[in-house]
Write a structure and sequence with these properties.
By secondary structure, the chain is of the alpha/beta class. It has a domain of 147 residues: 3-Layer(aba) Sandwich (Rossmann fold). It is built from ten helices and nine strands. The chain has a six-stranded mixed sheet with strand order 5-6-7-3-8-9, with helices on both faces. The protein has a three-stranded antiparallel sheet with strand order 2-1-4, covered by helices on one side. Helix 6 links the parallel strand 6 and strand 7. Helix 8 crosses helix 9. The chain binds adenosine-5'-triphosphate. Adenosine-5'-triphosphate binds next to strand 2 and helix 1.
Protein backbone atom coordinates (compact mmCIF):
# COMPACT_ATOMS: atom_id res chain seq x y z
CA UNK A 1 0.00 0.00 0.00
CA UNK A 2 3.04 2.21 0.52
CA UNK A 3 6.21 1.83 -1.50
CA UNK A 4 9.32 3.95 -0.95
CA UNK A 5 12.42 3.51 -3.13
CA UNK A 6 15.73 5.32 -2.72
CA UNK A 7 14.18 8.30 -0.94
CA UNK A 8 16.57 11.22 -0.43
CA UNK A 9 15.81 14.59 1.13
CA UNK A 10 18.25 17.43 1.61
CA UNK A 11 17.36 20.61 3.49
CA UNK A 12 19.88 22.91 1.79
CA UNK A 13 23.12 21.08 2.48
CA UNK A 14 21.65 19.31 5.53
CA UNK A 15 20.80 15.63 4.95
CA UNK A 16 17.37 14.64 6.25
CA UNK A 17 16.94 11.24 4.54
CA UNK A 18 19.64 9.38 2.62
CA UNK A 19 18.31 6.58 0.40
CA UNK A 20 15.43 5.05 2.35
CA UNK A 21 13.50 2.11 0.81
CA UNK A 22 10.70 0.03 2.33
CA UNK A 23 7.18 -1.22 1.68
CA UNK A 24 4.08 -1.39 3.85
CA UNK A 25 1.48 -4.00 2.93
CA UNK A 26 -2.21 -4.32 3.85
CA UNK A 27 -2.61 -5.77 7.35
CA UNK A 28 0.73 -4.38 8.54
CA UNK A 29 1.78 -1.90 11.19
CA UNK A 30 5.22 -0.89 9.99
CA UNK A 31 7.25 0.97 12.59
CA UNK A 32 10.05 3.35 11.67
CA UNK A 33 12.19 3.14 14.79
CA UNK A 34 15.07 5.55 15.17
CA UNK A 35 16.69 8.17 17.41
CA UNK A 36 16.04 11.93 17.29
CA UNK A 37 17.03 13.37 13.93
CA UNK A 38 17.15 9.97 12.17
CA UNK A 39 14.76 11.06 9.40
CA UNK A 40 11.41 9.62 10.54
CA UNK A 41 9.31 12.79 10.31
CA UNK A 42 10.91 13.76 6.99
CA UNK A 43 10.03 10.35 5.51
CA UNK A 44 6.43 10.46 6.78
CA UNK A 45 5.86 14.03 5.56
CA UNK A 46 7.06 13.11 2.05
CA UNK A 47 4.74 10.08 1.92
CA UNK A 48 1.85 12.26 3.15
CA UNK A 49 2.49 14.72 0.30
CA UNK A 50 3.52 17.55 2.64
CA UNK A 51 7.17 17.75 1.59
CA UNK A 52 8.91 17.25 -1.75
CA UNK A 53 11.79 14.76 -1.88
CA UNK A 54 15.17 15.58 -3.41
CA UNK A 55 15.22 12.16 -5.14
CA UNK A 56 13.55 8.75 -5.00
CA UNK A 57 10.16 7.29 -5.70
CA UNK A 58 7.13 7.09 -3.42
CA UNK A 59 3.76 5.47 -4.17
CA UNK A 60 0.67 5.38 -1.98
CA UNK A 61 -1.74 2.78 -3.43
CA UNK A 62 0.01 3.38 -6.74
CA UNK A 63 -0.26 7.19 -6.60
CA UNK A 64 2.72 9.53 -6.33
CA UNK A 65 2.33 12.09 -3.51
CA UNK A 66 4.67 14.38 -5.45
CA UNK A 67 2.52 14.36 -8.59
CA UNK A 68 -0.91 14.14 -6.93
CA UNK A 69 -0.79 15.14 -3.24
CA UNK A 70 -4.55 15.81 -3.20
CA UNK A 71 -5.39 12.23 -4.25
CA UNK A 72 -2.96 10.84 -1.67
CA UNK A 73 -4.44 12.98 1.11
CA UNK A 74 -7.84 11.36 0.40
CA UNK A 75 -6.36 7.89 0.93
CA UNK A 76 -4.49 8.59 4.15
CA UNK A 77 -5.05 9.82 7.67
CA UNK A 78 -1.99 11.65 8.95
CA UNK A 79 -1.28 12.52 12.57
CA UNK A 80 1.75 14.82 12.81
CA UNK A 81 4.26 14.84 15.65
CA UNK A 82 3.63 18.50 16.41
CA UNK A 83 -0.11 19.05 16.35
CA UNK A 84 -0.95 22.50 14.99
CA UNK A 85 -4.68 23.18 14.87
CA UNK A 86 -6.83 26.29 14.53
CA UNK A 87 -6.75 27.67 18.07
CA UNK A 88 -9.72 30.01 17.67
CA UNK A 89 -12.12 27.28 16.45
CA UNK A 90 -14.05 25.15 18.91
CA UNK A 91 -13.57 21.39 18.63
CA UNK A 92 -16.94 21.07 16.91
CA UNK A 93 -16.17 23.89 14.45
CA UNK A 94 -12.84 22.26 13.67
CA UNK A 95 -14.46 18.87 12.97
CA UNK A 96 -17.10 20.62 10.80
CA UNK A 97 -14.27 22.30 8.89
CA UNK A 98 -12.36 19.03 8.34
CA UNK A 99 -15.56 17.19 7.33
CA UNK A 100 -16.41 19.90 4.75
CA UNK A 101 -12.86 19.94 3.30
CA UNK A 102 -13.08 16.15 2.96
CA UNK A 103 -16.55 16.38 1.41
CA UNK A 104 -18.17 14.22 4.13
CA UNK A 105 -21.93 14.34 4.77
CA UNK A 106 -23.78 14.52 8.11
CA UNK A 107 -23.57 10.73 8.62
CA UNK A 108 -19.92 11.20 9.67
CA UNK A 109 -21.11 12.64 13.02
CA UNK A 110 -22.07 9.23 14.35
CA UNK A 111 -18.43 8.09 13.85
CA UNK A 112 -17.06 11.37 15.27
CA UNK A 113 -19.28 11.01 18.36
CA UNK A 114 -18.12 7.43 18.90
CA UNK A 115 -14.49 8.54 18.66
CA UNK A 116 -15.07 11.51 20.98
CA UNK A 117 -16.70 9.26 23.57
CA UNK A 118 -13.89 6.70 23.23
CA UNK A 119 -11.25 9.37 23.87
CA UNK A 120 -13.40 11.11 26.55
CA UNK A 121 -13.48 14.55 24.94
CA UNK A 122 -17.25 15.13 24.59
CA UNK A 123 -17.05 17.85 27.26
CA UNK A 124 -14.70 19.89 25.04
CA UNK A 125 -17.06 20.03 22.06
CA UNK A 126 -17.63 23.80 22.48
CA UNK A 127 -14.16 24.68 23.85
CA UNK A 128 -11.74 26.66 21.66
CA UNK A 129 -8.85 24.44 20.62
CA UNK A 130 -6.37 27.02 21.98
CA UNK A 131 -7.68 26.31 25.51
CA UNK A 132 -7.11 22.53 25.33
CA UNK A 133 -4.22 20.63 26.91
CA UNK A 134 -1.58 19.20 24.54
CA UNK A 135 -2.88 15.65 25.04
CA UNK A 136 -6.47 16.69 24.27
CA UNK A 137 -5.26 18.49 21.12
CA UNK A 138 -3.54 15.23 20.17
CA UNK A 139 -6.87 13.38 20.55
CA UNK A 140 -8.60 16.00 18.35
CA UNK A 141 -5.89 15.53 15.69
CA UNK A 142 -6.32 11.73 15.83
CA UNK A 143 -10.10 11.99 15.40
CA UNK A 144 -9.64 14.42 12.48
CA UNK A 145 -7.26 11.92 10.83
CA UNK A 146 -9.67 8.99 11.29
CA UNK A 147 -12.82 10.88 10.29
CA UNK A 148 -12.94 9.70 6.64
CA UNK A 149 -12.02 6.09 7.58
CA UNK A 150 -8.86 6.11 5.44
CA UNK A 151 -7.22 2.84 4.30
CA UNK A 152 -3.78 4.06 5.36
CA UNK A 153 -2.74 5.74 8.60
CA UNK A 154 0.52 7.64 8.84
CA UNK A 155 1.26 8.34 12.47
CA UNK A 156 4.23 10.34 13.74
CA UNK A 157 4.77 9.43 17.41
CA UNK A 158 0.98 9.43 17.96
CA UNK A 159 1.03 8.06 21.52
CA UNK A 160 3.36 10.77 22.82
CA UNK A 161 0.82 12.98 24.57
CA UNK A 162 -1.84 10.37 25.37
CA UNK A 163 -2.82 9.15 28.84
CA UNK A 164 -2.80 5.39 29.54
CA UNK A 165 -6.50 4.85 28.82
CA UNK A 166 -6.45 6.69 25.50
CA UNK A 167 -3.16 5.07 24.47
CA UNK A 168 -4.77 1.66 25.09
CA UNK A 169 -7.87 2.58 23.09
CA UNK A 170 -5.76 3.95 20.25
CA UNK A 171 -3.64 0.78 20.13
CA UNK A 172 -6.83 -1.32 19.92
CA UNK A 173 -8.12 0.95 17.14
CA UNK A 174 -4.88 0.37 15.24
CA UNK A 175 -5.39 -3.40 15.51
CA UNK A 176 -8.98 -3.08 14.23
CA UNK A 177 -7.72 -0.93 11.37
CA UNK A 178 -5.26 -3.53 10.09
CA UNK A 179 -7.77 -6.37 10.58
CA UNK A 180 -9.98 -4.38 8.17
CA UNK A 181 -7.21 -4.66 5.56
CA UNK A 182 -5.82 -1.22 6.32
CA UNK A 183 -2.13 -0.41 6.71
CA UNK A 184 -0.30 1.74 9.24
CA UNK A 185 3.05 3.46 9.02
CA UNK A 186 4.12 4.52 12.45
CA UNK A 187 7.18 6.33 13.79
CA UNK A 188 8.63 6.10 17.25
CA UNK A 189 11.90 6.22 19.15
CA UNK A 190 10.41 4.20 22.02
CA UNK A 191 11.44 0.54 21.88
CA UNK A 192 8.57 -0.85 23.99
CA UNK A 193 6.01 0.80 21.75
CA UNK A 194 7.64 -0.53 18.59
CA UNK A 195 7.91 -4.02 20.08
CA UNK A 196 4.32 -4.17 21.33
CA UNK A 197 2.57 -2.61 18.33
CA UNK A 198 4.46 -3.15 15.08
CA UNK A 199 4.22 -6.22 12.89
CA UNK A 200 7.45 -5.14 11.15
CA UNK A 201 10.10 -2.63 12.15
CA UNK A 202 12.57 -0.65 10.05
CA UNK A 203 15.51 0.69 12.06
CA UNK A 204 16.31 4.15 10.70
CA UNK A 205 19.59 5.77 11.61
CA UNK A 206 21.34 8.79 10.07
CA UNK A 207 18.77 8.88 7.28
CA UNK A 208 19.21 5.21 6.30
CA UNK A 209 17.31 1.98 7.05
CA UNK A 210 19.92 -0.21 8.76
CA UNK A 211 17.76 -3.32 9.14
CA UNK A 212 14.13 -4.36 8.90
CA UNK A 213 11.93 -7.24 9.89
CA UNK A 214 9.95 -8.60 12.82
CA UNK A 215 11.50 -8.28 16.30
CA UNK A 216 12.59 -11.92 15.90
CA UNK A 217 14.28 -11.16 12.55
CA UNK A 218 16.07 -8.16 14.07
CA UNK A 219 17.25 -10.25 17.05
CA UNK A 220 18.76 -12.75 14.63
CA UNK A 221 20.47 -10.01 12.57
CA UNK A 222 21.93 -8.43 15.71
CA UNK A 223 23.04 -11.80 17.10
CA UNK A 224 20.96 -11.08 20.19
CA UNK A 225 18.65 -14.13 20.35
CA UNK A 226 17.27 -13.27 23.79
CA UNK A 227 17.94 -9.52 24.02
CA UNK A 228 15.18 -6.94 24.26
CA UNK A 229 14.68 -4.51 21.40
CA UNK A 230 16.87 -1.89 23.10
CA UNK A 231 19.87 -4.26 23.04
CA UNK A 232 19.08 -5.25 19.46
CA UNK A 233 18.88 -1.58 18.46
CA UNK A 234 22.18 -0.69 20.14
CA UNK A 235 23.86 -3.68 18.49
CA UNK A 236 22.51 -2.89 15.01
CA UNK A 237 23.37 0.81 15.22
CA UNK A 238 26.76 0.00 16.81
CA UNK A 239 25.97 2.49 19.58
CA UNK A 240 26.50 0.04 22.43
CA UNK A 241 30.18 0.87 22.99
CA UNK A 242 29.54 4.60 22.79
CA UNK A 243 26.73 4.28 25.36
CA UNK A 244 29.01 2.29 27.72
CA UNK A 245 31.69 5.01 27.47
CA UNK A 246 29.17 7.75 28.21
CA UNK A 247 27.80 5.87 31.23
CA UNK A 248 31.37 5.34 32.50
CA UNK A 249 32.09 9.08 32.14
CA UNK A 250 28.86 10.00 33.95
CA UNK A 251 29.74 7.57 36.76
CA UNK A 252 33.22 9.14 37.12
CA UNK A 253 31.86 12.71 37.20
CA UNK A 254 29.13 11.85 39.73
CA UNK A 255 31.57 10.17 42.11
CA UNK A 256 33.85 13.24 42.29
P1 LIG B 1 12.70 13.19 16.05
O1 LIG B 1 12.60 11.81 16.62
O2 LIG B 1 13.56 14.08 16.89
O3 LIG B 1 11.40 13.79 15.69
P2 LIG B 1 13.19 12.46 13.24
O4 LIG B 1 13.75 11.09 13.12
O5 LIG B 1 11.76 12.64 12.97
O6 LIG B 1 13.58 13.06 14.67
P3 LIG B 1 13.62 14.47 11.18
O7 LIG B 1 12.76 15.51 11.82
O8 LIG B 1 13.11 13.80 9.96
O9 LIG B 1 14.08 13.37 12.24
O10 LIG B 1 15.02 15.16 10.83
C1 LIG B 1 16.03 14.48 10.07
C2 LIG B 1 17.20 15.44 9.88
O11 LIG B 1 16.78 16.52 9.04
C3 LIG B 1 17.70 16.08 11.18
O12 LIG B 1 19.10 16.19 11.08
C4 LIG B 1 17.05 17.44 11.18
O13 LIG B 1 17.85 18.38 11.86
C5 LIG B 1 16.97 17.76 9.69
N1 LIG B 1 15.80 18.62 9.40
C6 LIG B 1 14.49 18.29 9.58
N2 LIG B 1 13.69 19.31 9.20
C7 LIG B 1 14.52 20.31 8.78
C8 LIG B 1 14.32 21.62 8.26
N3 LIG B 1 13.08 22.12 8.09
N4 LIG B 1 15.41 22.35 7.94
C9 LIG B 1 16.67 21.85 8.09
N5 LIG B 1 16.93 20.62 8.56
C10 LIG B 1 15.88 19.85 8.90
Amino acid sequence: MISVKGLVKYYGTMRGVDGVSFEVRAGEIYGLLGPNGAGKTTTLKIIAGLLKPTAGEVRVMGISPVKDPVAVKKLIGYVPEEVVLYDSLTVMEFFEFVASVRGLDQSVWSWINTLMKSFEIMQYMYTPIGALSQGTKQKVAIIAALMHKPKILILDEPLKGLDARSARIFKELMQLHIKNDGAILFSTHIMDIAESICTRIGIIYNGKILAEGSVEDLRRMANEPTGDLEEVFLALTREREEVSHIIEELRRELSR
